[in-house]
């Protein structure tokens, strides 16, 4: 019986099978890489009170790649020596740090660390050099601020903050893709810490510029804005002349043009 000769040709389904195997392998690798990228930051167990030593371990595991092993800073991150516990609490608990991506400024998001872990890292950074501390509950207690104090806080806000954050705290655009974030619903301790530390594009308002009592009045004013809607009616996003001018151009001039067209189209 004559033996069959090998033709050297692959089965018609071989190419399709190889393609399917390749796609499955690539998909599995993508899932694995994504799982690593989205993994939770290293944390410590909370069965006991965390210390500055625990904070150092957390810092070196999660922050040292940008800020240096001893927080001395690198070309990718600034030095943290002397920034104080307040800066750490603000940046980490507002989710700005660790940065999700490089850009003109760090964006606010859900915090990646617990308050206990953040306190430990703050204690470690505070141990390196003196710096602004986290404000106490007494400094944040706006219940002691009366109507006159709220009015004073509003005046202080308009003088020192409104040029960037808008008179209604609605935020505003800055240069080179940066922006002043809106202040609606921001926690009192984070407002106080921002004034103390001057994060990103914000100037520092230490206690010599704005006293602790005045900072509390500014926070009380912002709380008042949160609790009271616009007394003048629809606020158009509280963006001032930008939205108001757009409203006039679209509806005001548009209405005039429509009336003019209607009048000229009427028969004599």
Task: Please give a structural write-up.
The protein has 268 residues and is mostly helical. It has 3 domains: 49-133, Orthogonal Bundle (Cytochrome Bc1 Complex, Chain D, domain 2), CATH 1.10.760.10; 135-228, Cytochrome c-like domain (Cytochrome Bc1 Complex, Chain D, domain 2); 237-268. Helix content is 51%, strand content 1%. The chain has a two-stranded antiparallel ribbon. The chain starts with 13 loop residues before the first helix and ends with a helix. The model is unreliable at 33-39 (pLDDT under 50).
Task: Please write out the topology.
Layout: H1 14-37, H2 52-62, H3 64-67, H4 84-93, H5 115-128, H6 137-140, H7 147-160, H8 162-165, E1 172-173, E2 179-180, H9 188-197, H10 212-227, H11 241-265
Antiparallel strand pairs: 1-2
EC number: 7.1.1.8
Keywords: Cell membrane, Electron transport, Heme, Iron, Membrane, Metal-binding, Repeat, Respiratory chain, Translocase, Transmembrane, Transmembrane helix, Transport
Catalytic activity: a quinol + 2 Fe(III)-[cytochrome c](out) = a quinone + 2 Fe(II)-[cytochrome c](out) + 2 H(+)(out)
